[in-house]
Design a protein that fits this description.
Helices cover about 40% and strands about 20% of the residues. The chain is of the alpha+beta class. Strands 3-2-1-4-5-9-8-7-6 form a 9-stranded mixed beta sheet, with helices on both faces. Helix 7 runs parallel beside helix 8 and helix 12 packs across helix 14. The longest helix is centred in the C-terminal third of the chain and has 18 residues. The protein is elongated.
C-alpha cells in the first residue's frame, strides 16, 4: 500500500515540507489502531512509539514527530476521493469473495463533524457481513442525498454472486437495477414510502396466514436464537406470487415478496415485530439468511465506530479532515477485525491491547501498509 498512499498528491508548498506525506498517513493509521482519536493523542502516541515507528515501519522521521497542528493541517488538505481510492485498492487486495456473501448498504452521520459552517458528514458504506470488512464508502452532504448516491456506490462494487441488503429508504427501482445489472441479488426492506408494494405485501400475507390452504406457493422457515436471557423466534415467509401487484415488471429482477415475524421474550416481557421486504431471491432459506444478516452493518460497523472509536464525539471538523478520518477509522476497524483473536476481544479491547502490545499493533498495521 505504500505506493498507493504515495500516489496521493501532496498540495503543500514543497519548500516548506518537513514531514513526508506517506509518513504522516502511516503514523496516523497506526495511532488510530492504537486507541487514539484526536490529533493531540496521535502526536503523543507517535512520540511514545518513535523507536518502533523507525525500526518496524521503516519511517525515516528526518525531522522527528509532527505536531498535532501539522497532522490536522495535512489531513485537512488530502483529497478525500484519492484517499478513498487507496482504501478501495486495499479491500480489493484482502477481500475473499464468498458465494452468497451478504453486503449491507447503509449510511451513518458523524454527528460531531457538524459545525456552524458545515453540516455533519454522512457516510454511506458497503459492509461484507461474513468478513466484517468495509468494501467501499461514499461521503454525501446529508442523509437525504443517500438515495441518489447508493447507485453510484454500487457501480464501484463487485456484487456478482452476492446478496445486497438495504433499508426501506433505498427500496428504489434504480438501486434494484444496479444490483441485478451487476449479477447480484437483493433484499430491500419495505415500508410506507413504497405504498403500493407495502399494501400488497401486507394484504397478501394477512390473507395467506389466515387461509394458508389457498396459498400453496408461500414458503416459510424458522430460526430460534437464545442468549443473555433473551429468546427470539423468527418466522420467515417468501412468496413468488406477484400477479396481483400492479407494474411488478417495472422492478428489475423482482422474484417475490417476503415477511419476517419476530417474537422476542426477555423475562416477563414479550414483543412482536413484523417486517416486509422485496427480493430477487427464490429460496426462502437464502431470504432468511439475508434478513438475519441485514443489520450486520449496524452492529459490526456503526456501533463500533460510535462505541469503540467515539466517532460521534469527535470534534475534528476542519476542511477535509472529517471525511479522511472517517476512512482512517474504516481502515483501522477492518484491520482490527481481521486479527486472529478470540471473539471475547471486542474492538474496543483490541484497540487498547494494540496500544501497548507492539507485536499485535504490528500485525494490524502490516495488514494495511504491506
Amino acid at each position: 500500500m505504500k505506493e498507493s498512499f504515495m500516489s496521493i498528491a501532496d498540495t503543500r508548498q514543497q519548500s516548506q515540507v518537513r514531514h513526508e506525506l506517506y509518513e504522516i498517513i502511516a503514523m496516523t493509521i497506526a495511532a488510530v489502531i492504537g486507541n487514539c482519536d484526536g490529533w493531540d493523542e496521535i502526536e503523543d502516541f507517535c512520540h511514545s512509539k518513535e523507536a518502533w515507528l523507525r525500526e518496524h515501519m521503516g519511517l525515516k522521521l528526518e525531522h522527528g514527530i509532527p505536531s498535532e497542528t501539522t497532522f490536522a493541517r495535512v489531513w485537512g488538505r488530502i483529497d478525500p476521493d484519492a484517499f478513498k481510492r487507496c482504501f478501495s485498492q486495499w479491500t480489493n487486495r484482502i477481500r475473499e469473495k464468498l458465494p452468497g456473501e451478504v453486503i449491507n448498504i447503509d449510511g451513518k452521520t458523524a454527528c460531531g463533524s457538524r459545525s456552524t459552517r458545515r453540516k455533519a458528514i454522512h457516510m454511506i458504506s458497503a459492509w461484507a457481513t461474513e468478513q466484517e470488512l468495509v468494501l467501499r464508502q461514499m461521503c454525501v452532504a446529508e442523509k437525504t442525498n443517500e438515495i441518489s448516491s447508493v447507485p453510484l456506490l454500487l457501480e464501484l462494487l463487485d456484487v456478482s454472486g452476492c446478496i445486497v441488503t438495504a433499508d426501506a429508504m433505498n427500496c428504489q427501482r434504480e438501486i434494484a437495477k444496479k444490483i441485478t445489472d451487476g449479477e447480484g441479488d437483493y433484499v430491500l426492506s419495505l415500508k410506507e414510502n413504497q405504498p403500493t408494494l407495502y399494501e400488497y405485501a401486507e394484504t397478501y400475507f394477512r390473507d395467506a396466514l389466515e387461509h394458508p390452504q389457498w396459498y400453496p406457493e408461500m414458503r416459510s422457515c424458522e430460526t430460534l436464537d437464545k442468549g443473555h436471557g433473551r429468546i427470539e423466534k423468527r418466522t420467515y415467509y417468501l412468496s413468488p406470487e406477484l400477479s396481483g401487484l400492479e407494474k411488478a415488471q417495472n422492478w428489475p429482477g423482482l422474484a417475490g415478496i417476503g415477511m419476517v415475524c419476530s417474537h422476542v421474550t426477555m423475562g416477563e416481557t414479550k414483543s412482536f415485530e413484523v417486517r416486509y421486504a422485496i427480493t430477487s431471491l427464490k429460496s426462502v432459506s437464502a431470504f432468511a439468511y439475508a434478513m438475519r444478516k441485514h443489520w450486520g452493518i449496524e452492529n459490526g460497523l456503526h456501533h463500533c465506530l460510535d462505541v469503540s472509536f467515539h466517532e460521534d464525539r469527535s470534534r475534528i471538523r476542519k476542511d477535509h479532515s472529517p471525511d479522511n478520518l472517517a476512512v482512517v477509522r474504516h481502515f483501522a476497524l477492518s484491520a482490527l477485525k481481521q486479527l486472529p483473536l478470540s471473539e471475547r476481544f471486542s474492538v474496543k479491547r483490541r484497540r487498547k491491547v494494540c496500544a501497548y502490545d507492539l507485536d499485535l499493533l504490528a500485525s494490524a498495521v502490516d495488514l494495511i501498509l504491506l
